[in-house]
Amino acid sequence: MKKKLKIVILWVLISMILTGCWDKIEIEDRAFVMAIGIDLSSSNKRYVVTFQFPNAAQIAKGTSGGGGGSEKPSFAVSEVADTIFSASRHISTRIDKALYLGHTQAIIFGKDVVENRDRFQEVLDSLDRSYELSRKVYLLVTPQKAQDILLKKYEMEPNTGAYIRDIFKHYNRTSIFPKIDYNKITKSFHETNGNAIIPKIIAGKNEIKIAGSAIIKDYKLAGWMEDDENMGYMWLTELVKGGDVTITVPGDEEDIKVPFNISNVIRRRSVKEKNGKIIYRVKLDVEGDVTEYTFEKHGEMMKGDLLNVIERKTSDEIKKMTQKAINRFQKELKVDMLGIGDYIEKYHPSLWEKVRKDWGKIFPEVEIKVDVTSHVRRIGLFR
Amino acid sequence: MIKNNDKISANQVSILLFTTMVGAGILSLPADVSKEVGPNGLIAVFAGGIASLFFARMILYLSSKFPTETFVEYSAKLVTKPISILISIVLVFYFTIFVSLDVRIFGEVLKIYLLPSTPIETIIITMLFASAYLVRYGLEPIARMSEILFPIIVIPLVLLFLPAMSDIDLSNFLPFMRISLVKFFKGMLFTTYSFVGFEILYLLFPYVIDTKRLKKGVNAAIISTMLFYMYITFFVIGIFGYKETKEQLWPFLTLIKSINFPVFFIENVEGIVMGIWTFTIFSSIYSFYYFAVLTFSKLLKTREHSYFVLPAVPIMYLMALIPDSIVTVYKYAGYVSQYMSVFFIAILPILLFILLKVKRSGDSDEEKT
User: Fold this and answer.
1) A218 and A84 belong to one structural domain
2) For residue A297, is it left (φ>0), alpha (ψ between -120 and 50) or beta?
3) Which of A166, A199, A225 lies at the terminal end of a domain, its last residue?
4) For residue A11, is it within any domain?
5) Which of B114, B175, B268 sits opposite A346 (nearest CB)?
6) Last residue of a domain, one of A225, A244, A260
7) Is A134 on the interface with B (CB under 8 A)?
8) CATH code of the domain covering residue A358
9) Which of A142, A180, A265, B20 is 20 to 30 A from A196 via CA?
10) CB contact under 8 A, B244 and A23
11) Which residue on chain A is closest to B258 by alpha carbon?
12) Does residue A274 sit in the same domain as residue A310?
């Protein structure tokens, strides 16, 4: 009798332990959010948060061979809320799945969020504190509303989050937008106390485009950078990994446009102090290939100093780009986005001690000199 | 009941020390050091390791003078009985605090990252019972457990970070040593919470078979712990920079979030790391647990430590639930590591060392007369 009782008690105990996991959520009950859009709301709540997630059921069908057919490949839902977190919670009253943010690929800020200093700081903090969000997320700013971008379906890839991630994958073909993810942006915010560059996204009718970037100064949108400036900025901060520069070489009748395809960039920097003035020198060593010239001049590449001309022109072109970016940051916006303060702090700490306090005033006075040397390494298959 | 041979080898001591020291501290160590010493976090960890090594050897030297006695017994000879009892009670309390702090931090982290709707009480009590089960069987099974867990902890953690190598910006460690020495020592002090654990040497000596090799074992344990911490600090500060690191709660876990696996089908490795880290913290919990119970049984002069294992569970459980939030947990952890740990790691060994020398010279004087 006693033995039986013991066994019964043991059974009860074991069954209590073996019930399994409290937190189990079946995979089809989860909504894997791929992209989040954040806008300010015009109603009495603060934000409009849009979540985009693929239709997991349809993906499962697709892989098993039976076409999904009429079912939607991806969903997007918006929610009005006072905080980003409460939006992600309140949305569960409207959808039948549990939102999971761990696989989010992109977060898009509407222009109005970035223009409002307090709101933007709230949003950034909520991203920093999040347990689920990965730090490999791409942050983007749009001059439109983020909601408009996410509610649309794009034919090329209906899953907008994956679409954005894939565009970032081949950023090195153009270098007209910086490949910086959340990790780098938040680092920049922490180190410069509120300055960063965030890539810009715009939506066309049937596609999205990522080009240029937004300049954030003191947690607030200070302006936009277009392709040229953007590339100039990236030269100066060593973010360029590829891309092309188009130069003009005088031809017989008409000028010839020659693309210079960048394959490698090396940057060297130095800082000197002369008569109380700081001179910041950047040396860029650019390597690349010429991929187009003109048909009638086959054979001329090997002759004369054509390559030297191309190299010189490329250097000038790159210098012009960097000058544009320098003008923008140093003269117009007066914000040190070029990493000069950071460089001085790390490599010339005693100089930094002197200038740290009023770096904001000293930065516009710094003399920035850029030297570019380019080298043509390859010329395509014809001489 | 046949009492098993409760003796361990010097190698086992070495591994036990490593697994005891590497615990909850690993999560917050880079943030703690960069708060004080900025970009010189690596050097602070190194200095903290060397200091720990020095004091660990000192404790070892002390206990080697009384090869058959634990701290409870030999301290009575050095600092009169009442004081020795008092210190021993504090030591029991101290080990118990570490069990509860570790188990609480474990519960908090697990709740946040893996089990959001599981009550933290369940996580804590499960962990405590699992440790209690192991602790009941004594030192030898504990050491064997550490031997099993050691490769499971070290190998994956070292490998997991490698893909992040390309994100490291070495300039984050500059400027080199441009801080005041006071700040540097303060930064070193903050590493104590991570190096805490070698105090178990106070009690370990009588249980070791090959005591001659113990010196080498202690050296190996502390240096490898130091290298392991430096490895993680190197990645954290190298990727985030000290300005961001110092504001994070658990930079170690944030680092996991920012690792990019180039060709890997798993996107987020947090789950894997959580699993490994569970072993890490389990190994420090059971070790502190055992030595708390052991010290207590030595105080009461009982033959077996196992009587006190189960009664300790509710005490540790309640202590773990005292702090209201994660903020208070770290406040208490700060108090404990800055006052109690410094006492047990640094002040007490020096004190005992001096007393030992004075006593010895006193003894030899007596012999002469």
Assistant:
1) yes
2) alpha
3) A225
4) no
5) B175
6) A225
7) yes
8) 3.30.300.210
9) A265
10) no
11) A135
12) yes
Split into its structural domains, chain A has a count of 2
- Domain of A339, in residue numbers: 232-378
Beta-ladder partners of A75: A53
| Residues A179, A209 within the same domain | yes
* Number of Cα atoms under 13 Å in the Cβ half of residue A281: 8
- List chain B residues with CB under 8 Å of A352: 175
Give the Cα separation of A340 and A363 in Å (integer): 8
Alpha helices in chain B (DSSP H): 10-21, 25-37, 41-64, 71-78, 81-113, 120-135, 139-161, 181-190, 192-195, 201-204, 214-240, 242-245, 251-257, 270-299, 309-320, 326-335, 342, 348-368
Q: How far apart are CA A310 and CA A252, in angstroms?
A: 16
A86 and A115 together in one domain? yes
**Same domain flag for A213 and A109:** yes
Cβ contact (<8 Å) for A134 and B258?
Answer: yes
Residues A122 and A267 in one domain: no
Q: How many Cβ pairs closer than 8 A exist between chain A and B?
A: 56
User: Is any Cβ of chain B less than 8 angstroms from the Cβ of A187?
Assistant: yes
ipTM given for this complex: 0.83
What CATH number does the domain located at B10-360 have?
A: 1.20.1740.10
Of B39, B244, B260, the CB nearest to A136: B260
Q: Which of A131, A135, A347 sits opposite B258 (nearest CB)?
A: A135
A219, A324: one domain: no
**Closest among A153, A156, A151, A155 to A167, alpha carbons compared:** A156
Contact B267 A23 (CB under 8 A): no
Residues A151, A270: one domain? no
The nearest CA of chain B is from the CA of A343 a distance in Å of 9
Break chain B into its structural domains and give their ranges: 10-360
